[in-house]
Amino acid sequence: PNTTSKYPITARPPASESLPPPIPGKANATLVFLARNSDLQGVLKSMRSVERHFNSRYKYPWVFLNEEEFTDEFKADVMTMTNASVQFGVIPARHWYQPEWIDEARAEQGRKAMQELDVIYADSVSYRNMCRFNSGFFFRHPLLQPYRYYWRIEPDVEYFCEINYDPFDYLEENNKTYGFTITLVELHRTVLTLWDAVKEFMEQYPQYIAENNAMRFISDNGGDTYNLCHFWSNFEISDMDFWRSEAYTKFFEFLDSKGGFYYERWGDAPVHSIAAALFLDKNQLHFFNDIGYQHSTIMHCPQQPLFLKNSCTCNRVHTIDYRQHSCLMKYNKMLTGRW
Ligand code: GDP
Ligand code: MN
């Protein structure tokens, strides 16, 4: 029977009809989850959402990382949430803790100054460890060595739409490297000297800057200053080979040597984003518009016709995309080359 006009445009297809058959994914990919034992409840919530909307059909393996051993309770509860394989890894101390050569007095001063301005996580050393780890180390973990693509998951996130195709496969087939759903402006106070370091790097290593780059997404004046736009890294579906590349390795080492992960509070989101914008062809970036996603109070909800097509359950009006803090419109203008 001809099914093209079976449903009026305003009606939702029954969810069962929008699901592909349960065929395990074939990409060389994994779901990566950095978490503390104390994150358990939020971890389970996120896993349930990812499994329901995607992974119960594709069965990509999960990898959990922590700087401490996961407890038996954590492991047992996590394993009840999926039929896919799960691995738990401990992060080597040198990939996590504040390095010896950081001037702790200066770092402490930086934290205090930031705290007076009420910046979120101003005083937290562990948050800085996490940002540095996500910037320069997660993809070097032994458990991630077999994999090329990863999907980053955090506690207490929610997915709202059926993901009826394999995003890893999509990246591979379309020669994409970095995928995101939300793009925002960073808190200026956390990255005061980051752009100075980036400019210095660009002068020293011009060979790494892509010809058709996305500089216009991150700078409004041809690279003079950073406009604070970044991809929100709590969601990433990307290619770890990029983080393992010579360009990014040099870039991370250069930034790390400045100490800004501790003297300031450089986030892995601006660090990843700036690298992706400068070292990749802008066509290697991908906006996963069809993936409805929420972290904390910020959400990306697809608009029509994707909303109905993918059986989404978010409130479309509350999507971040057209709000002031979103950089999506800047991203779109950058792509089309129009200002
Ligand atoms: P936010 O999203 O920026 O507010 O930061 P989160 O608290 O969500 O932390 C980001 C990610 O790092 C989450 O997956 C956390 O579970 C994880 N994380 C943060 N701090 C630590 C830590 O000290 N140890 C471990 N193992 N994971 C952490
Ligand atoms: Mn988070």
UniProtKB/TrEMBL annotation:
<feature type="active site" description="Nucleophile">
    <location>
        <position position="236"/>
    </location>
</feature>
<dbReference type="GO" id="GO:0005794">
    <property type="term" value="C:Golgi apparatus"/>
</dbReference>
<dbReference type="GO" id="GO:0000032">
    <property type="term" value="P:cell wall mannoprotein biosynthetic process"/>
</dbReference>
<dbReference type="InterPro" id="IPR002685">
    <property type="entry name" value="Glyco_trans_15"/>
</dbReference>
<dbReference type="GO" id="GO:0016020">
    <property type="term" value="C:membrane"/>
</dbReference>
<dbReference type="Pfam" id="PF01793">
    <property type="entry name" value="Glyco_transf_15"/>
</dbReference>
<dbReference type="GO" id="GO:0000026">
    <property type="term" value="F:alpha-1,2-mannosyltransferase activity"/>
</dbReference>
<dbReference type="GO" id="GO:0006487">
    <property type="term" value="P:protein N-linked glycosylation"/>
</dbReference>
<keyword id="KW-0808">Transferase</keyword>
<dbReference type="InterPro" id="IPR029044">
    <property type="entry name" value="Nucleotide-diphossugar_trans"/>
</dbReference>
<comment type="similarity">
    <text>Belongs to the glycosyltransferase 15 family.</text>
</comment>
<protein>
    <submittedName>
        <fullName>Glycosyltransferase family 15 protein</fullName>
    </submittedName>
</protein>
